[in-house]
Fold this sequence. Notes:
Distance between the termini: 66 Å
Shape: elongated
CATH superfamily of the largest domain: Type I PLP-dependent aspartate aminotransferase-like (Major domain)
CATH architecture of the largest domain: 3-Layer(aba) Sandwich
Structural class: alpha+beta
Strand order of the largest sheet: 6-13-12-11-10-7-8-9
Oligomer: single chain
Strand content: 5-15%
Number of strands: 17
Number of domains: 3
Largest sheet: 8 strands, mixed
Radius of gyration: 30 Å
Number of helices: 19
Amino acid sequence: xxxxxxxxxxxxxxxxxxxxxxxxxxxxxxxxxxxxxxxxxxxxxxxxxxxxxxxxxxxxxxxxxxxxxxxxxxxxxxxxxxxxxxxxxxxxxxxxxxxxxxxxxxxxxxxxxxxxxxxxxxxxxxxxxxxxxxxxxxxxxxxxxxxxxxxxxxxxxxxxxxxxxxxxxxxxxxxxxxxxxxxxxxxxxxxxxxxxxxxxxxxxxxxxxxxxxxxxxxxxxxxxxxxxxxxxxxxxxxxxxxxxxxxxxxxxxxxxxxxxxxxxxxxxxxxxxxxxxxxxxxxxxxxxxxxxxxxxxxxxxxxxxxxxxxxxxxxxxxxxxxxxxxxxxxxxxxxxxxxxxxxxxxxxxxxxxxxxxxxxxxxxxxxxxxxxxxxxxxxxxxxxxxxxxxxxxxxxxxxxxxxxxxxxxxxxxxxxxxxxxxxxxxxxxxxxxxxxxxxxxxxxxxxxxxxxxxxxxxxxxxxxxxxxxxxxxxxxxxxxxxxxxxxxxxxxxxxxxxx
Length: 499
């Protein structure tokens, strides 16, 4: 038997000396595979280390190492140097107990390891916003992708100088900062800005710096919700919020949105005792409508009467092109039921992943204590640089410059769409994207796929809906140069006509 193995074993153990994987590892893996596929069956004696080394043209130590690994893992039996045979019972067989359990039992055991918690299942089933398209050269294709700022116009050199200055002059002092709420000068700068720009009523002590929107809503959900609590969620609405709420074990209740924003009456009819409401009142995502003052007052009154919390996501209100935006919901809240979210990822650049919460005074201690145990803090250097960026006036100048740029890009996109397509466009004078409504009967997922085939990154509106919704595509204009818009719209029109 040994002679038979010896004469044919090199056919299944061909090694690749030029490969980066060590030769002993290659030999071990090939022998193990041969055993698992029964090319080498139970009880078969393997060649001696000396003879196999000679046949393969490798050192004896290479074979010794491979045999020792197989012996340690239970694939072979005996003693290296005095006869080595393939094991009668393999490790995989022992682990699965195949000799005593039926196939149905094995299937049950395998599925047991794949079981998730109810929250894990709900979270895993929540759709993700697809990644940006990739060009043939591997670069991200961002033509018309919603939610992406015009990073080409960001003052990169200035930001680099601020980082270098901070790292050179005060990094050692920053390393000892242990304030759980965030870098105090940044919180002071944020408070000074939002009090004026958004009508938020707060002091720096109410501000908690978080790792972007997801870090903020995760913290709020942990503090304010118990598993099973009902939460009103705008439908269609932001997937990041839905995922975080489901991750907290919330019972997410889809509430429709109309031209005035969240339909409070529909929410009360569906679940009048909701614990919490998530809203984007200044610029609803993804539809783009602004919640009317009447709806805002109705929502606050209902929340106050029912002891509910309101999570206000004010993600891109900085970009309003005509007049001043309505005061933030938090600014007209007299009962301290609103937790306000702000983020710099949309305003500055996506990779910054830096945002903040404004919490009612009586919740500050609870939020900060929870923050300690969660352990998700924002790097201190980025906080200090952003504080400098705001305090030295660069932030406001950047906002003014981008507001002008986005106004031009929005107007160009609307004009191109009206020229190329006989479709309804909803383009509010705020934000960084618009909605292209599709004709009745057209599948927006199919339309999105057709657009992707010609390099257009247009997300379907149905992606953000928990119930049936009107078909449409989201088109972002913030990151698209004017000269790219005309060609992009022409390609999109060609793709849609082909459906």
